[in-house]
Design a protein that fits this description.
The protein is globular, with a radius of gyration of 14 Å. It is about 0% helix and about 40% strand. The protein has a three-stranded antiparallel beta sheet, with no helix packed on it. A three-stranded antiparallel beta sheet has the order 2-3-4, with no helix packed on it. Strands 5-6-7 form a three-stranded antiparallel beta sheet, with no helix packed on it. It has about 110 residues and is an all-beta fold.
Length: about 110
Amino acid sequence: MTKLFDSPDLPAGGSLRFPLPPVRGRFGPLAVEGFAYRAADGTIRAWVNLCPHRAQALDLGDGRLLNSLGEIECHAHGARFDAATGTCTGGPCPGASLQPVAIRERDDAVWLE
């Protein structure tokens, strides 16, 4: 397993970005980024930082991942996703979901499985 970040770096209600292993692209390796969100109950969920609507980073622009309602929001086109499931809740992404990242919290750290 690969260590992504230390658990205390992600407070309840917060989000944090982390690098993922590169994936094979059409013209060679592509850098990929993930992000994690810690719910108020302490649960951590993680997704690939890529909007299924336009295949660009969700936090493009101002760097925020969550809106004032606690939804994950793509700042380029307003697609909104449930922070617990990654499922589209509004905007130009009907039927789409964020790609989950398998993680595990152990020994005060979060690990890529």
